[in-house]
Write a sequence for this structure.
């Protein structure tokens, strides 16, 4: 009996488990280690914040999925790897041995080492904490809508832009018109324009949308410190001297990796992401595979986006099976350009692909909704 251990219930592992359910491998024991029971589907996260989806619609329940794949499910957090003994060390249980290991644990926002950020900011990941803080803020707003509040987002990539638009749209929906102006929205970004890795059309259009909706854009602003004021409000300081008093600060900066991976001796890039070859296989440890945000393809690094984690699911499954059966591995070649549909929070989306973009259109949101629901139905059919 060989042991295949999967750490993290990210997008690629959800797909791999679905494939194992369809085509079980004899003589293989599968174990899934996940620190959550239900993992968020990134494509639906902004729609969930905007109020278009329920929690269950936007999350993959890993228990039935593991069950279908006949995998053991451990709800625990992997904290280290012992690569001499081929074991995963977890926060709350004895070490878990593996013959083949696969890691799909996503990422967390970088630069949380800015003074005060780790204490006062709400990082976009882990998502359950983000959602908890958001629900708490939502309740506070509903209880005292007359109070003047400010929300800040740090990071002007697709995640930060969608999060800000979605939260604003949600609060506008649930607040009576006379209270809507009581919440100010601010977005801080260190470059001269938002959405730097998307088409200029998307960047221009979403800048206009944000400005028209009264969201204050602070471009070329590097946040250097967060602190608490005596009034219990937070203070955000920028390198330029700009200061903002606010009530919540969402931290949606570029992706970063946890330290325990590089500490284990796995080959990682200079940001701590696992270096993999075109088989999604660690370049230093051939019995270890990685996918999604936590992996960096050595000769073809791609942006950290859910779309790649999804695309890697099937080749990952195929190569895990082949490695376990001592067969030659297949190659995975990521697409160079990919379509991003960025929601406005109001039932429309802007499309961006390479240098091109269109929207905002309601039809684009309808397409995104259809794609995402179809994906979820394929992964975790309801009922
Ligand atoms: C607000 C926001 C909106 C976004 N919107 C989009 C979008 O519309 N489209 C898009 O393509 N991308 C989007 N992204 C990016 C997207 O979330 C990530 O690229 C994607 O989730 C990566 O998938 P993954 O499979 O690598 O990991 P994840 O989806 O992050 O899954 C990793 C899983 O591993 C678990 N885990 C983590 N550490 C451990 C551990 N030590 N032990 C056990 N389990 C662990 C986590 O709880 C999680 O369940 C968005 C990101 C944010 C923050």
């Amino acid at each position: 009996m060989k042991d295949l251990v999967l750490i993290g219930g990210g997008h690629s592992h959800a797909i791999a488990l679905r494939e194992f359910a369809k085509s079980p491998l004899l003589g293989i024991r599968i174990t899934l280690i996940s620190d959550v029971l239900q993992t968020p589907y990134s494509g639906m996260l902004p729609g969930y914040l905007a109020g278009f989806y329920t929690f269950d619609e936007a999350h993959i329940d890993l228990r039935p999925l593991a069950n279908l794949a006949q995998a053991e499910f451990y709800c625990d957090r992997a904290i280290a790897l012992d690569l001499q003994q081929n074991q995963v060390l977890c926060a709350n249980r004895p070490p878990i041995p593996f013959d083949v290991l696969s890691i799909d644990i996503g990422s967390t926002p970088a630069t949380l080492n800015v003074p005060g950020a780790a204490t006062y900011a709400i990082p976009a990941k882990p998502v359950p904490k983000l959602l908890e803080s958001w629900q708490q803020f939502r309740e506070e707003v509903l209880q005292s809508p007359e109070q003047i509040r400010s929300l800040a987002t740090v990071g002007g990539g697709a995640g930060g832009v969608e999060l800000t638009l979605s939260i604003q749209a949600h609060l506008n929906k649930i607040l009576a018109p006379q209270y809507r102006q009581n919440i100010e929205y601010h977005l801080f970004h260190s470059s001269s324009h938002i959405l730097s890795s998307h088409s200029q059309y998307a960047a221009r259009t979403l800048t206009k949308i944000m400005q028209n909706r009264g969201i204050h854009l602070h471009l070329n602003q590097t946040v250097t410190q967060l602190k608490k004021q005596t009034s219990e409000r937070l203070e955000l300081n920028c390198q330029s001297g700009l200061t903002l008093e606010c009530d919540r600060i969402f931290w949606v900066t570029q992706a970063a990796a946890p330290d325990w991976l590089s500490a284990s001796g796995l080959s990682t890039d200079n940001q701590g992401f696992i270096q993999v070859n075109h088989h999604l296989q660690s370049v230093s440890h051939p019995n270890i595979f990685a996918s999604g945000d936590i992996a960096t393809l050595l000769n073809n690094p791609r942006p950290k986006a859910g779309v790649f984690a999804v695309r890697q699911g099937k080749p990952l499954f195929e190569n895990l099976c082949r490695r376990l059966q001592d067969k030659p591995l297949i190659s995975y070649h990521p697409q160079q350009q990919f379509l991003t549909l960025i929601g406005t929070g109001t039932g429309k989306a802007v499309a961006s692909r390479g240098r091109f973009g269109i929207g905002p259109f309601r039809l684009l949101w309808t397409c995104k909704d259809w794609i995402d629901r179809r994906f979820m139905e394929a992964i975790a059919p309801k009922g």
